[in-house]
Design a protein that fits this description.
- A hairpin with a 2-residue loop joins strand 2 and strand 3.
- The strands form 4 sheets. A 6-stranded antiparallel sheet has the order 5-4-8-9-13-12, with no helix packed on it. Strands 2, 3, 6, 11 and 14 form a 5-stranded mixed sheet that branches. It has a two-stranded antiparallel sheet with strand order 1-7.
- The longest helix is centred in the first third of the chain and has 23 residues.
- It folds into 2 domains: 32 residues; 134 residues, Immunoglobulin-like, CATH 2.60.40.
- The protein has 2 helices and 15 strands.
- The relative contact order is 0.17.
- The chain is α+β, with helices and mostly antiparallel strands.
- The protein starts with a helix and ends in a 5-residue tail after the last strand.
- Keywords: Membrane, Transmembrane, Transmembrane helix.
- This is DUF6795 domain-containing protein.
Length: 174
Amino acid sequence: MLNTSKFFYFKRSIVIYLFIVFSLFYSISGVAMSLFGTEVVLFSPMQGKLTYQGKPAAKAKIVRHVIWKDDVGEKETYYANENGEFSLPIKTDKVRIPLLGEFNILQEIWVYYDDQEIPIWGRARGNIVEYGELGGIPKNFRCELTDEPVSLNDKEGLFITSCKWDLIDKKGNK
């Protein structure tokens, strides 16, 4: 007669062992992320042009706000040049993501121009790769500050912007 308690103990031990082996070796990148941290892109680089009533928004103040590790987030300030052109650098950080965890980021960009506070970008994202926001590099990226922000369909969640672009260069998606 088979001793069922030893059989079930053996079966449970094998399941636990296989789970540990699978977790450590099959998903080595996930383990590396959870143990040592990984470099994540909080905001991809962004270049474009700001206009107000069709004219360059010269010297407009641009505030990039990223919320990801607390409710306050981090703000950075940049300025458009005389032609309304701007360039925001990539923002990265090293983060430990639990093996079965999910990483979420809230991105906002506000422009201060002509005594107005104007939202031009609001996005929730879970994608942590460079240019993951749009799936590549937007070409001819421009924002007319008098345009109303619109909600765009996105598989990752909320995405509202008043900016436009002609196409997305998929080669930029690393």
